[in-house]
Amino acid sequence: MTKHLSVADIRQRKDSPDKLVMSTAYDATFASLLSGAGVDLLLVGDSLGMVIQGHDTTVPVTLEDMIYHTRAVRRGSTTAHVVGDLPFMSYRVSKEQALISATRMLQEGCAHSVKLEGGVDVADTVSALTSAGIPVMGHIGLTPQHVHAMGGFKVQGKDQEGARRILEDARALCAAGIYSLVLEGIPADLAETITAEVDVPTIGIGAGPKCD
Fold first, then answer.
1. Distance CA 79, CA 81 (A)
2. pLDDT score recorded for residue 151
3. Is the pTM of this model over 0.85?
4. Residue 41: enclosing H or E segment and its boundaries?
5. How far apart (Å, rounded) are the C-alpha atoms in residues 43 and 49?
6. Residue 99 burial by CB count (10 A; 0-12/13-18/19+): exposed, middle or buried?
7. With contact defined as beta carbons under 8 Å apart, do 43 and 83 qualify?
8. Strand order in 136-141's β-sheet?
9. Three-state SS at 163
10. Is 30 strand, coil or helix?
11. Helix or strand or coil: residue 28?
12. Catalytic site residue 64?
């Protein structure tokens, strides 16, 4: 049986000259092509709401949508670690809701781990998930599920206070037990600072070349 990249494998790549490669996939065909090309992680992003479903934001995407597409990607992946995105409000109501949503993503969606957006505000939820044995990838900076609150898709952390908050988010998530951290839409120097400080691999989306 082919071995998929594990959480332990991913953590060991922190600060490695061999950069981690993550790509987004929404179906078995692209998962097969990307996994076959040597991509390390496949993120089934709730961005499918915009890319596949034609919405203006990721907000309308449901947990059922994510489970369906994650299951398809998992079938197509031969070696890549598959991350299932927890969609808008599927983990915010309570820790119990988050545990149920994440469990469904692993059991029904066959994901290897889950990703959720937020920092200090979701640290307790992340801790509950990781304590239950559910691997969690964090996501800070530009968080698309908060697009309405942010006033659009804008670079975050450009001023001193914004950068401080994002750094605090990174610290809180690491303390809660994440195994990796997405940094999206932040200045390259801030991403470099976070990458140097945290003990988990960082994965950049529009965050410069200094991520892991």
1. 7
2. 61
3. yes
4. strand 41-44
5. 14
6. middle
7. yes
8. 22-24, 41-44, 81-85, 113-115, 136-141, 180-184, 202-205
9. helix
10. helix
11. helix
12. no
- Give the position of tokens 């995105």: 85
**What CA–CA distance (Å, rounded) separates 54 from 146?**
18
Pick the catalytic residue from 96, 184, 192, 197.
184
Query: Among 212, 172, 183, which Cα is nearest to 196's?
Result: 212
Write out the chain's pLDDT in tens, 212 residues: 568 999 999 999 998 899 999 999 999 999 999 999 999 999 999 999 999 999 999 999 999 999 999 999 999 999 999 999 999 999 999 999 999 999 999 999 999 999 999 999 999 999 999 999 999 999 999 887 776 565 666 777 899 999 999 999 999 999 999 999 999 999 999 999 999 999 999 999 999 999 99
Position 154, amino acid: K
Crossing angle (nearest 10°) for helices 160-176 and 188-197 = 30
Q: What is the 3-state secondary structure (H, E, C) of 86-145?
A: CCCCCCCCCHHHHHHHHHHHHHCCCCCEEECCECHHHHHHHHHHHHCCCCEEEEEECCHH
Region of residue 80 (phi > 0: left; psi between -120 and 50: alpha; otherwise: beta)? beta
Q: Which of 4, 70, 43, 13 is nearest to 202 (CA)?
A: 13
Residue 114, token pair as written in the block:
């889950």
CB-based contact 191:211 (threshold 8 Å): yes
